[in-house]
Amino acid sequence: MGQGEASARGTAMEGDCLSCIKYLMFVFNFLIFLGGSFLLGVGVWVLVDPTGFREIVAANPLLFTGVYIILGMGGMLFLLGFLGCCGAIRENKCLLLFFFMLILLIFLAELAAAILAFIFREHLTREYFTKELKRHYQGYNNTDVFTSTWNAIMTTFDCCGVNSPEDFKDSMFRMINQNHMVPEACCQRTSQTGELAYINQEQCLLGNMMFRNNKGCYSAVVDYFELYIYVAGALAIVVLTIELFAMVFAMCLFRGIQ
């Protein structure tokens, strides 16, 4: 009789624990689902917005790429949240297993990205970017992805070259444009009647320091994103931790379902 009561009590506790895991997983994944829906909504709104915001984004390759990253992240979170919610509330083994495999693939991809970033960290140095700029930057050929990306960076961050405008000495840009010391993306601009216009483009292209941006883009970008780099690092650790717990919850619920 005592053994039967202990067994029943243990079964009841196991059922309560399983129920707790189920509802925790549902709430957790519902928040992920809402976050994914929000990001998808923002991305779609930017792409179809009739007020002209779409043209502003399309004119800047960095922002344009960012919109598709937001859409991709939103779609992934939407799918994960949906699978997790349905799998938990319906106690569906198939959905839970699919959710676990998807989380595992994302976790492994993030781990691989971190390892590759560490292996190829020398490609993020000033010297590497300077060498690539001298070799490949053409100045005014916006059909070239490398050139258009650098033009967008220099225009967005009001900078010039990797370290300074001196980076364009002995470069492909100077070979193609022998009369220009720096590209027009390096020229200072001012707002006139709501539009940006060059202060003195002619003097800037001739190398006049008064009318060009003299700060290097490496320092400008690092300074701008310094806070965000630490936030992104902390967020990455939080996301990886959440993914680990999600996989543990999914497996526990999967094994507990009869």
From TrEMBL:
Name where it's found.
Answer: Membrane
Report membrane topology. Multi-pass membrane protein
Q: Major location, coarse class?
A: membrane
Q: Name one GO cellular component term.
A: plasma membrane
Which CDD domains does this one have? uroplakin_I_like_LEL
**Can you tell me where the transmembrane regions are?**
23-48, 68-89, 96-120, 228-254
Q: Which GO terms describe its biological process?
A: regulation of angiogenesis
Q: Which UniProt keywords apply?
A: Glycoprotein, Membrane, Transmembrane, Transmembrane helix
Asked if the record carries the keyword Cell wall biogenesis/degradation, the reply is no
- Specify the domain of life of the species encoding this protein: Eukaryota
Coiled-coil features, chain-numbered ranges:
none
Similarity comment text for this entry? Belongs to the tetraspanin (TM4SF) family.
The name this protein carries in UniProt is: Tetraspanin
Q: What species is this protein from?
A: Cyclopterus lumpus
Its lineage reads: Eukaryota, Metazoa, Chordata, Craniata, Vertebrata
- Gene name on record? tspan18b
